[in-house]
Amino acid sequence: MFPIIFLDIDGVLIAYPEGDHTPPQFTPRCVDAFRSILQAVPGVRVVLSSTWRLPRHVNRLHEQWLAHGFPLSLAWDGTPDTREDREVSPLYRRGLEIQSWLESHPEITRWVALDDERLAIEPIIGNERCIFTNPARGLTPDGAERAIEILERRLTGNP
User: Fold this and answer.
1) What is the gyration radius of the CA atoms in the chain, in angstroms?
2) Topology of domain 4-153, per CATH?
3) Contact by Cβ (8 Å): 97, 90
4) Share of residues in the chain with pLDDT > 90 (%)
5) Residue 8 and residue 24: Cα distance in Å, rounded?
6) Alpha carbons within 13 A on the beta-carbon side of 41
7) What is the rounded distance in angstroms from the CA atom of residue 79 to the CA atom of residue 54?
8) Domain ranges of the chain
9) At 83, phi and psi to the nearest 5?
10) How far is CA 86 from CA 4, 57, 65, in A?
11) In angstroms, rounded to a whole number, what is the distance separating the alpha carbons of residues 2 and 42?
């Protein structure tokens, strides 16, 4: 089965230097780091875990995605939207959504999460398969290299 990248957009593909309030656009150096993962790991697919997967943001996502040469088919799926589920703690929502997606896809054993929300993810799925970014810097070449190592290790089992 193909490997999966759970992808957040803000703070990963878009770096937000302190005080920068420009309209969100993918940061070229972050895109380059992301592209290096795609080139190094054949067949990788993206599952969007970002709020950019939601209807109010999807047009902007498609615009940015295509502007950087990514085919729409690369974004294979999205994690479930649990915002209306009162049983889901907002504090851990991102981690719970990733966990839910993994439970629905037990055939997926190679995956990594790229995100800047450590506190929303780490308590739920741990950190062994996560690259946590600094939102001011976004995804870096070092983070991309660690993601490639995780995807190539062929770790088995889901959290």
Assistant:
1) 15
2) Rossmann fold (3.40.50)
3) no
4) 64
5) 13
6) 29
7) 10
8) 4-153
9) -60, -30
10) 28, 23, 32
11) 8
What's the length of the chain? 159
Instruction: List the Cα angle 38/17/78 in 5-degree steps.
Output: 40
Residues facing residue 113 across a β-bridge: 6, 130
Residues 6+ apart with CB under 8 A from 71: none
Q: Which two tokens stand for residue 63?
A: 């615009």
Q: Which residue has the higher pLDDT, 85 or 35?
A: 35
Looking at the predicted structure, is the pLDDT value of residue 156 above 60? no
Instruction: Please give the backbone phi and psi of residue 113, each rounded to the nearest 5 degrees, phi first.
Output: -110, 130
Per the CB < 8 A criterion, the answer to whether 2 and 43 are in contact is yes
pLDDT tens for each residue of 26-44: 999 999 999 999 999 999 9
The CA distances from residue 93 to 5, 127, 139, 148, in Å, are 18, 16, 21, 25
How wide is the angle at C-alpha 111 spanned by C-alphas 118 and 28, nearest 5°?
A: 65
Rounded to an integer, what distance in angstroms lies between the CA atom of residue 64 and that of residue 30?
Answer: 13
Helix, strand, or coil (residue 78): strand
Q: What is the pLDDT of residue 155?
A: 46
Residue 116: what residue type? D
